[in-house]
Amino acid sequence: MATDETLAAIAAEIEACQQCELFRAARLGVSGTGNPHAEVMLIGEAPSGYDDRTGAPFSGPTGGFLDELLALAGLRRAETYLTNVVKHRTPEARSPLPSEIAACAPYLTRQIAAVRPILIVTLGRFAAARFFRGASMTALHGQAKRVEGRVVLAMYNPAAGLHREELRQVIVDDFTRALPAALSEARRLAASGQADGDGDAPPQQLSLF
Question: N or C: which end of the chain has fewer CB within 10 A?
């Protein structure tokens, strides 16, 4: 099955999913959008109210800010693939529960396998927790490591920069410096045949600067 067909099939499953209670209050399942063959996959936390109405992740003001940030990194939204760890909106925009993240985890695993990005960018602590264990975003942001041949970069969610002025410049700096550096390293590994899940080595911290 072609990648776009695989992603469409996953999206249909998400739309009909009742694995947790989130579907009851949500309007739409929010699977993912973007380039099905993207080098870069960005993984957020949960759909916003805007996403719940459009069916697309990172809609509304957060999406506009993300577009500005991607431009700083020399990227366009259409070049990337965007998704979340949780596929339905959480009530009152609360943090996703462990059970909800676990219910959606197989969908995310299949999306990663279908797109085969060389760089995964986690946006927010719940997305980072899938790959980085036991550290705060204060310590993690801008940090990258290799996981099964892919480079994974931890970043703050752009929404944090809209709600907390003290984080806005931190986020801008990470998109300006850390993301391009991580993508450059991911491309180097891909060119040497060490990317896209080919490596069997344990997770390895990367020094990008």
Answer: C
Nearest to 136 by CA among 126, 144, 145: 126
Residue 73: which residues within 8 A CB-CB, separation 6 or more?
A: 175, 176, 179, 180, 183
Residues in the chain: 209
CB contact burial 32-45 (16+ within 10 A = b; e otherwise): bbbbbebbbbbbbb
| Residue-range domain boundaries for the chain | 3-206
Nearest to 29 by CA among 3, 51, 62, 5: 51
Under CATH, what is the fold of the domain 3-206? Uracil-DNA Glycosylase, subunit E (3.40.470)
Q: Cα–Cα distance between 32 and 186 in angstroms, integer?
A: 22
What are the pLDDT digits (tens) for 94-129? 999 999 999 999 999 999 999 999 999 999 999 999
Name the pTM for this structure. Answer: 0.92
Sign of the C-alpha dihedral computed for residues 178, 183, 184 and 189 taken in this order: positive
DSSP state of 128: H
Name the band, by pLDDT with cuts 50, 70 and 90, for residue 133: confident
